[in-house]
Every structure is written in structure tokens, then in C-alpha cells.
Design goal:
Length: 147
């Protein structure tokens, strides 16, 4: 018996809509990363892009437990001497809350060209509105994400 190996072009890509309000960041990121990779499908293959598109709304309402809102810091480096910059979660939430979810999901994807291609299928928005209504995204409930 031969092992089934899907073709390079998998056309069964759907759109999913996730409301991030009140969902812990790590659980949300893990679920989104699995959908982007296609691990929730029977045709999952580690080296192919079999995943779906994901739209995350209400990014500013994502939940962080404990003291992470004030203690956790994100570091960026400009490449120049003294160019390190540390920002807390509260600062990022004020300016660009989409970065919190993007950074968490990016860390859960493969560190290669496939991961770079998968992260482009993630769309994150600050409020409840998004411009992807024409794609008819299927909403995922919070219970499916938190489980």
C-alpha cells in the first residue's frame, strides 16, 4: 500500500474568522498556527502549504494572564550601537496591537520559506470590521479555540 501524497497545488483553501476578545494569546496563536499549516485537515503534509486563511478581529482585546501586561517586554534592534529598544505589552497594545498576535503566531510556524509563505495568509485587524466579507469567512467560536 502506498502512502498518499497530495499534489503541490491544494485548492481547498477556506477563510476563517476569529474574534480575539477575551481569548488567551497563547491558545489563540496555537489554534491560528494549526489552521495556517493545515494540521486540522486530513491532507496535512509537513512540507506543503495545505492551510487556510485566517482573519483575526478585535486584536486589542486579546487576553494576557498574570503580570504579562506590565512585565513582558519585546526587544527590537536597529543594527546601530545602542539601537536596542524594549517595549512592554501595554505600549504595544496602545500603538499596534496586531503585532502581539502576529509575533506569537510567527513563532509557532516553521522557520523557513514555508513559514514565510504561511504568515502572509494571516490577516489581523484592530476593530470588529475587516475588508474580507467577499471571501465569506466562517466564524470560529471561542469554545473551539480555548478547548
Amino acid at each position: 500500500m502506498k502512502t498518499y501524497l497530495p499534489k503541490e497545488e491544494i485548492k481547498e483553501q477556506r477563510w476563517h474568522l476569529i474574534d480575539a476578545s477575551g481569548i488567551p494569546l497563547g491558545r489563540l496563536a496555537a489554534q491560528v498556527a494549526n489552521i495556517l499549516r493545515g494540521k486540522n485537515k486530513s491532507i496535512f503534509t509537513p512540507h506543503l502549504d495545505a492551510g487556510d486563511f485566517v482573519i483575526v478581529i478585535n486584536a486589542e482585546k486579546v487576553l494576557l494572564t498574570g503580570k504579562k501586561e506590565t512585565k513582558k517586554e519585546y526587544m527590537s534592534y536597529s543594527g546601530w550601537k545602542g539601537g536596542e529598544r524594549y517595549r512592554s505589552v501595554a505600549e504595544i497594545r496602545k500603538g499596534k496591537p496586531e503585532f502581539l498576535i502576529w509575533h506569537a503566531v510567527k513563532g509557532m510556524l516553521p522557520k523557513n520559506r514555508l513559514g514565510d509563505r504561511l504568515i502572509t495568509k494571516l490577516k489581523i485587524y484592530k476593530g470588529a470590521n475587516h475588508p474580507h466579507t467577499a471571501q465569506h469567512p466562517e466564524p470560529l467560536k471561542a469554545e473551539e479555540i480555548i478547548k
